[in-house]
Amino acid sequence: MSDKLMKLTLKIWRQKDADSPGKMESYQVEGISEHMSFLEMLDVFNEQQINQGNEPVAFDHDCREGICGMCSLQINGEPHGPDRGVTTCQLHMRMFNDGDTITIEPFRAKAFPVIKDLVVDRTSFDRIQHAGGFISVNTSGNTQDANNIPVEKENADKAFDAATCIGCGACVAACKNASAMLFVSAKVSQFALLPQGKIEAKDRVLNMVHQMDEEGFGNCSNTGACEVECPKGISLENIARMNREYLKASLTKE
Predict the structure, then answer these.
(1) Which of 51, 83, 86 is nearest to 71 (CA)?
(2) How far apart, in whole angstroms, are the C-alpha atoms of residue 112 and residue 89?
(3) What is residue 179's three-state secondary structure?
(4) Which of 94, 131, 168, 215 is the most exposed place for a label (fewest CB within 10 A)?
(5) What is the pLDDT of residues 35-74, one digit of tens each?
């Protein structure tokens, strides 16, 4: 059977640069296969725009394998679109129908300012990571092989689950308060659960939460939308763990 091609109406946020006002603009795109990814659809759209002498729409992408998190888009009001457990690059056009109107916007948050069109600046996440999302180890002298340090399997599994966070920002976009607590708690948890992360645990959680607040992210809304929209299924349990770590650090920090 031949592949049925779709014709779609795209309502896309266009913004020249960070200092310019933006607006939604409507376009038609044709020749879209249901087997294409959402980003491949945008590639076809941009090629058609270039052929018509128009400026293509700017959007972020890199690995296109659901690993880097750069492809983050708000699609019909949902971070990464209508599917679950996928990033935008893993979203396929079979989730849509011929003749559909698709609204495409950048992630909306004060801490994610728009650079151009659908591209946002998420370096606020980088600064939170720099504040404490690491382990400092002196590798000179007599170091111990990590495999010799016993770790409970339950803790190891939870740490690895937290470490699957790709920092895409879907949790922020899904939250009515634009909270980054799911992201920060995942980065705190992946170290708090392992013995290698215990040494800097107090400074880590205090510094990362402080930087999160400095960046202008809101507080947790307790609605759970972040977990629902997270492409990696990061659990809300991490926020509870971060709150416990933060309270303990605040009470015992000298």
Answers:
(1) 86
(2) 20
(3) strand
(4) 94
(5) 999 999 999 999 999 999 999 999 999 999 999 999 999 9
CATH 1.10.1060.10 maps onto the chain at 122-136+151-252
Q: Evaluate the CA torsion angle 22, 27, 31, 35 in order and state its sign.
A: positive
- H or E element: which one contains 163? helix 153-163
Q: Which fold has domain 122-136+151-252?
A: Fumarate Reductase Iron-sulfur Protein; Chain B, domain 2 (1.10.1060)
Tens of pLDDT along 184-237? 999 999 999 998 899 899 999 999 999 999 999 999 999 999 999 999 999 999
Helices (H) and strands (E) in the chain, counts: 8, 7
Q: Which residue has the tokens 């920090």?
A: 253
How far apart, in whole angstroms, are the C-alpha atoms of residue 59 and residue 166?
Answer: 18
For domain 5-115, give the CATH number.
3.10.20.30
